[in-house]
Amino acid sequence: MNTLETIAKRRSIRKYLDRQVSREDLQKILEAGLCAPNAGGGQRSVICAIQNRELCAKLGRLNGKSMDRRRLTGSFVSAEQPSLIDDPSIQSGFYGAPTVCAIFAPSNFLYSVPDAFCCAENMALAACELGVSSCIVARAEETFENEWGKDLMKQWEIPDGYLPRCFVLLGYVKGDYPPPKPRKAGRSRIIE
Ligand SMILES: Cc1cc2nc3c(=O)[nH]c(=O)nc-3n(C[C@H](O)[C@H](O)[C@H](O)COP(=O)(O)O)c2cc1C
Questions:
Q1: Nearest CA residue ID for atom 13, ligand 1
Q2: Domain boundaries of the chain, sorted by first residue
Q3: Among the atoms of ligand 1, which is closest to the Cα of residue 139?
Q4: Across the beta sheet with 46-50, what order do the strands follow?
Q5: pTM over 0.85
Q6: CATH architecture of structural domain 3-68+76-171
Q7: Which residue's alpha carbon is nearest to atom 12 within ligand 1?
Q8: In whole angstroms, what is the distance from residue 29 CA to residue 119 CA?
Q9: Å from CA of 154 to ligand 1 middle
Q10: What is the pLDDT, as a whole number, of residue 69?
Q11: How much distance in Å is there from the Cα of 192 to the middle of ligand 1?
């Protein structure tokens, strides 16, 4: 696939097989994240890939609990790959993905959040290119906002003053890979 084909093919996957991502593919995906554009060239974001099932499950439950469904009434995400918004019976915000990458960035830097999401998108595209499915997930700050989460960040040697900004789930799609979503019309302009 060339880059444009990969961009068109990538979808957010929320149904995963019980099959782990290889170390070789994971390294390539992490490298793609580290190559993302970043404000001021500061390369501040730090990515932590978690391949421990119990850790992923516990963090996923905390992530799911942190979602305030009341704010999203009427929203709809996907029929083929339902999210927490679509299916209230889903408890884990990580949907059973075997690998969860948490992206951390400084709390006191204006572009810390966009930096982290640029890493996330690079990772999602690299994963797609390698045949690995992915989903970018929010509510990272809330997920680690507890003593256990803060302790994990210390254990993982996340620098002081850093906050979790987003997650990238990785794994292999269970069932059919969904087709591209149709694009809403009228969202781009070329001004001459
Ligand atoms: C900033 C951002 C936050 C997102 N947060 C979540 C999330 O918390 N949970 C989730 O299941 N998907 C999340 N997504 C994925 C979107 O739901 C998904 O990109 C969107 O529905 C379009 O579908 P597609 O990625 O399959 O094209 C997020 C995407 C972005 C860009």
A1: 137
A2: 3-68+76-171
A3: 8
A4: 46-50, 99-106, 162-171, 133-137
A5: yes
A6: 3-Layer(aba) Sandwich (3.40)
A7: 137
A8: 10
A9: 28
A10: 74
A11: 33
What length is written for the chain? 192
For 92, half-sphere exposure in the C-beta direction (CA atoms, 13 angstrom radius) is: 18
Q: Which residues approach ligand 1 with their CB closer than 6 A?
A: 11-12, 14, 77-78, 83, 117, 135-139, 181
Of 69, 91, 95, 136, the one to substitute when testing ligand 1's pocket (max ligand atoms within 8 A of C-beta) is 136
CA of 137 relative to ligand 1 center, distance in Å = 6
Distance 78 CA to ligand 1 centre (A): 10
Cα 139 to ligand 1 centroid, rounded to whole Å? 11
Q: Cβ atoms within 10 A of the Cβ of 37, count?
A: 11
Query: Residue 93: which of 30, 176, 20, 166 has the closest Cα?
Result: 166
Per-residue pLDDT of the chain (192 residues; tens, 9 = 90+): 899 999 999 999 999 999 999 999 999 999 999 999 999 999 999 999 999 999 999 999 999 999 887 777 777 899 999 999 899 899 999 999 999 999 999 999 999 999 999 999 999 999 999 999 999 999 999 999 999 999 999 999 999 999 999 999 999 999 999 999 999 999 999 999
Residue type, 148: W
Strand partners, 136: 168
